[in-house]
Amino acid sequence: MNVIRLEGVTRRFGDVTALDGVDLDVEAGEIVGLLGPNGAGKSTLLSLVNGQRRPDTGTVRLLGGDPRDAGSRVGLGVTPQETGLPATLRVAEVVDFVAGHFPDPVPTARLLEQFGLAGMARKQTGALSGGQKRRLAVALSMVGRPRVLLLDEPTTGLDVSARQELWDAIRDYHAGGGTVLLTSHYLEEVQALAERVVVIDRGVVRADDTMAQILHRVGLRQVVLRSPQDLSAWTLVVRGSYRPDGAQELYTTDADALVRDLVLAGVEFSDLQVRGASLEEAFAQMVADTTTQGAPS
After folding, report:
1. Could you tell me which residues come within 8 angstroms of residue 113 by beta carbon, excluding any fewer than 6 positions away?
2. What residues contact 163, with CB distance under 8 A and at least 6 apart?
3. Residue ranges for the chain with pLDDT beneath 70
4. To 10 degrees, the CA torsion angle through 32, 35, 38, 42?
5. Which of 20, 27, 35, 276 has the most CB atoms within 10 Å of its CB?
């Protein structure tokens, strides 16, 4: 069952086309990672799904209805990039206020415990750190037991430990049957959580597939080695650079052939490591490819 559907959606802001004929279906129970460079249209897409904006052309459906109708949003939880919290209210008071809008909310004490905020229940939100405010914002998106969760950069500003805690909370929500559509600047976050990746660039969907297929589709391999010779311009190397420790990172579509060529050419090297590309590397390659394709000849 599709819980989110966009068909032929275009949204413009003056002369800027933020989304251009976008089609997207998200099924119940999926975790979908939405990737793209700054200004690609990710946040605009989420604002259409949550009913904050309407498309210029095309249709958007949330849980079968128009997201601009309040009834369609009852099953929706949202964490925007920036959340304004009433500075003088205590943390528990804010949770209680939001919970009052839902028929069966998560008990406040349980929610605060889940997000590591139990000791701050009586603290004014204005006195929270940036990371604590971010945790509270994600907690508020889950207080109503939503069927669909929209997370726009959910862990921005969090340290590694707090980020892992939020990942666990998102996984628990998903394990209970929830659907998640998230954006993140931390590509390792999308790789850790998402089952499916949608890449948007300049308002157009460039890729939409499983995580494994996205990585396979790019087909890059990372070769790490040490050599007195700069190998970044070697045949079969897509791009290369030096690490801070002096090792070279070389990206290639055929690691076996690259290593074989280096051996046959008598190139001195050591500490060889070969692995598959990460999502960050795959994403960088996809964006580079589409930029090249869109460049004037």
Report:
1. none
2. 155, 186, 189
3. 216-219, 277-297
4. -30
5. 35
Domains by residue range for the chain, with CATH: 2-215 (3.40.50.300), 221-276 (no CATH)
Place of tokens 């119940």: 28
In one-letter notation, the amino acid at residue 249 is E
Residues 270/225, Cβ–Cβ less than 8 Å? yes
The confidence score (pLDDT) of residue 217 equals 63
The conformation of residue 101, written as its DSSP 8-state character, comes to T
CA triplet 153, 32, 48: central angle to 5 degrees? 65
Please give the structure tokens belonging to residue 198: 């949608």
Q: For residue 239, give both structure tokens.
A: 């791009």
Say if CB 206 and CB 238 are below 8 A apart.
no
Q: Sort residue 284 into left (φ over 0), alpha (ψ -120 to 50) or beta.
A: alpha
DSSP 278: P
Long-range Cβ pairs for the range 226-230 (8 Å, 24+): 226/269, 226/270, 226/271, 227/267, 227/268, 227/269, 227/270, 228/268, 229/267, 229/268
**Phi/psi-derived region of residue 228, left when phi > 0, alpha when psi is between -120 and 50, beta in every other case:** alpha
Q: Structure tokens of 189? A: 């976050």
Residue type, 118: A
Task: Write out the two tokens for 130.
Answer: 């940036």
Q: Which of 256, 258, 239, 257 is nearest to 248 (CA)?
A: 239
Tokens of 59: 């249709």
